[in-house]
Specification:
The structure holds two protein chains of two kinds.
Chain A: E1 2-9, H1 13-16, H2 19-32, E2 38-43, E3 51-56, E4 59-64, E5 73-81, H3 85-93, H4 96-99, E6 103-108
Antiparallel strand pairs in A: 1-5, 1-6, 2-5, 3-4
Chain B: H1 2-21, H2 24-45, H3 51-69, H4 74-80, H5 105-112, H6 119-129, H7 135-141, H8 146-163, H9 174-194, H10 200-216, H11 221-234, E1 241-244, E2 247-250, H12 263-280, H13 286-297, H14 304-318, H15 321-335, H16 337-346, H17 353-365, H18 369-382, H19 386-398
Antiparallel strand pairs in B: 1-2
Classes of the chains: A alpha+beta, B mainly alpha.
Chain lengths: 114, 399
Amino acid sequence: MQYALLIYYKPGTNEALGADDYEAVHREYMALKDTPGMFGGASLHPVETATTVRLRDDQLLVTDGPFADTKEIFAGFYLLEADDLDRATEVAARIPAVRLGGSVEIRPIVTDQS
Amino acid sequence: MIEEVFRDQWGRVLASLIGYFGDWDLAEDAAAEAFAIAAQRWPSDGVPDQPAAWLVTTARRRAIDRLRRDRVLATKLRLLAAAEPPAWEDPAEDIVDSTAIPDERLELVFMCCHPALAVEAQVALTLRAVGGLSTEEIARAFLVPPETMKRRLTRAKAKIKVAGIPFGVPSGPRLPERLGAILAVVYLIFNEGYGDPDRPALAAEAIRLGRVLAVLLPAQPEVLGLLALMLLHDSRRETRFADNEHGPDLVLLPDQDRSRWDWRQIAEGRALLDRALTDAAGRPGPYVIQAAIASLQAQEQLDWPQISVLYGRLAELTGSPVVRLNRAVAVAEADGPAAALAIVDRLDLPDYQYWHSTRAELLRRLGRRDEARAAFQRALDLARTGPERRFLERRIAES
């Protein structure tokens, strides 16, 4: 099974961390990439840098900011190969966002087999 | 007779097939086909010595037969290539010994009650897969249209497959938590049936599930505690409602006819409770404590001080305000209504019918009639079932 682990943050979480804690959390994210089964992922720049594209009255509309104002911000993702949902959950639970007040959404990836 | 065998065997057969094929829909179709063949043959041929083995063998062969014919399912065939001998004739021959078919119902229960599924889906799947109820029967029990229940089950099965919800028993530190979810599902089914005189079948179904769990997990005190609790409550089933012209009326514990309680069932519940208390080694969990309370409630002279102590321990374990409310009821009997009202007024459960009705009852006993009537009225506004409404209406009229 392949899963995307989608990482959500409460705004201001990183800013609230001290420099040392921020460094430690960053190292945790890097270390997670070495988890067996990890095959991809990305970390995203802050939501202030986002640009959204949509179609309005057949006109391409390009706007500053994310597509929707939400309480939690999509911050990045991992791609994981795991035997089942319980294994994927074990890995997701180790992502720092979980203990920092954010959350991780586990989504199965569409593959040739599924 | 055959119907009974079917109900008893369904969970075992389905579990074995899901374990074998790793695919719920395929397993369910194959199981249904095998049961249909059995329904044709067993009345004339007789029930085989090992009905589960017969059904599993027949279902496996039918499913593999279908898979081989169905080229679209070629990917699944690869899984099977090594698994099965090629020839099958009459399923009555060459039946796998039932000792060779492992009992995988526990794996199935953990899959059905996985926390990644909504609780209502867990309930429906458990009744369908382990309890062997049809979709229509489950829909009727939960008062929803069959189409709604069918969609609920279909969506849950799709999630199991696509999200990779495992067929297996969790190990280590996750086990108690996951077991707790299973017990909660069974107890929820029980309470749906127990609280409503029109749906007693659900309580019986929950007890059947509880018995299965007690066979599969005999060393877990909470499993035995839950079964004991359900048996003890259910033993008073016949006396909890009294019929009158409006429909059934609620009869409170002190007014129930003890001679009509099911004393054999009470004895069974108490024996299970003793086992659970021994196994819990001085640290009983919430179901064992509730069973102990139910056992005390079946005594002729109610030991209210002891009951209130047990509710106190349960409240410490669960932190539940509803449990504290129950403790107050026991305190009222042991120490009087004023002490109980002090506990009740410290709780804040404005949307909970029984908080209002308990307060009302205590106020009534203290002679504070206007406050009592207002509280009974609040409880009545929140009451759902007919017997409860009529009980509260009577109280309001009397006060």
